[in-house]
Amino acid sequence: ALVPYVPRLPPGAMSGKVTASTFALERPCCIFEPLANASDAVWLVVAFADASATFKNPTSGAEVPPYEALPTARAYMTLEMAAAAYGCSAPGAAVLRVGGDTACHGRAPCNGPLPSPGPYRVKFLLMSCHGPRAETKWSDPILLRRARSLSTIDPTPAHRSSTAVIIAAILASLGAALAMAMLGAVGTLLCVPLCCQDLGSHLPYRTHHVPPALPHTLPPACICGCTPRPHGPCPTK
Predict the structure, then answer these.
(1) Which stretches are transmembrane (predicted)?
(2) I need a surface site. Which of 120, 136, 139, 228 has the fewest CB within 10 A?
């Protein structure tokens, strides 16, 4: 019997839905409920997309294509489970991971990693001791992710454009000019009081007995880039 069910990837967002060697399937429920017996088993058939149309269902368990035969047979069967595991009220995980078993070591049925990106198509097959009883439709093609080759990865950082270099140079020049202006302003604020203090300590002093002395020159401390101030008393604080 053909069951009107199409296997598919989980519709919601999830981590690792499709990787380079695995993919997740939505766990089917109730699809074989009226057709399955307690002794029946449900298998998952995995085939390359171009080989799914020519795949022939096995007539017994001895004809089940193993995982190791995928390169030559172009298909294999895995994830054997009792039909009751897919019942309407059966508890279980919401998804099935195809290719998630990395330690099969010849153990059947193996659910080993998929060897290439595919694409693949899958279907569920209900089998009894005497052969197939029912099956679902084939899924849409499932393409795995491709791993990037190391030769395609550029180890050097991305080159900056000439425009970005010019803008960076202009910004650096403006920053340096601003820093020099700030240093000059701070130096002026610190130097002017010192100059003023020195001027106050060398003001001419007149007495009745000593002739007027020539005005003293500015002290050396005032020759530090400050703006010269006129001779005279310091401003009152």
Answers:
(1) 165-190
(2) 228
Q: Residue 218 and residue 195: Cα distance in Å, rounded?
A: 8
Q: What is the pLDDT of residues 128-160, one digit of tens each?
A: 988 999 999 999 999 999 866 555 555 554 445
DSSP per residue over 172-237, as a string? Answer: HHHHHHHHHHHHHHHHHHHHHHHHHHHHHHT-----SSSPPPPPPPPPGGG-SSPPP--SSPPPP-
Asked whether the beta carbons of 63 and 73 are under 8 A apart, the reply is no
172-204 burial, b at 16+ Cβ within 10 Å, e below that, comes to eeeeeeeeeeeeeeeeeeebeeebeebbeeeee
Q: What is the DSSP string of 75-124?
A: EEEEEEEEGGGGSTT----SEEEET--S--TTPSSP-PPPSS---EEEEE
Apex CA 7: angle with CA 102 and CA 72, to 5°? 50
- 123 is written with which tokens? 């279907």
Residue range 81-106: average pLDDT?
88
pTM greater than 0.90 (yes/no): no
Task: For residue 110, name the pLDDT band (cuts at 50, 70, 90).
Answer: very high
